[in-house]
Amino acid sequence: MSEIIFSYNHTRCHALKVKGLLGGEVYIGEMDGFEIYQIDPHALFDQFGFVAIKK
Fold first, then answer.
1. What average pLDDT score do residues 5-29 get?
2. Among 26, 50, 51, 52, which is disulfide-ready with 41 (CB 3.0 to 4.6 Å)?
3. Bridge partners, residue 3, by sequence
4. Is a pLDDT exceeding 70 seen at residue 44?
5. Cβ-contact 21, 51 below 8 angstroms
6. How confident is the model at residue 31 (pLDDT cuts 50, 70, 90)?
7. Residue 15: its pLDDT value, please?
8. Which long-range contacts (C-beta less than 8 Å, at least 24 apart) are formed by 9-15?
9. DSSP states along 5-22
10. Is residue 45's pLDDT more than 80?
11. d(Cα 32, Cα 41) in Å, to the nearest integer?
């Protein structure tokens, strides 16, 4: 599976699994051995605006 499905702000969200971060992402939590980051915290909330990187 190339994504993690989780709940954030009472919304079902998807985080794409990636090998590295680009910078500017904001850490929001951990799940299943991955750290989850919001890609652009200044944009309007988007259920697909997340990435996950292996701890």
1. 92
2. 26
3. 16
4. no
5. yes
6. very high
7. 94
8. 9/45, 11/45, 11/47, 12/47, 13/47, 13/48, 13/50, 14/47, 14/48, 14/50, 15/50, 15/51, 15/52
9. EEEETTEEEEEEEESS--
10. no
11. 23
Report the percent of the chain where pLDDT is more than 70.
96
Tokens of 41: 């915290």
pTM given for the model: 0.85
C-alpha–C-alpha distance, residues 38 and 28, integer Å: 7
CA distances from residue 45 to 1, 34, 39, 53 in whole angstroms, order as listed: 24, 21, 10, 20
Q: Which two tokens stand for residue 55?
A: 């701890």
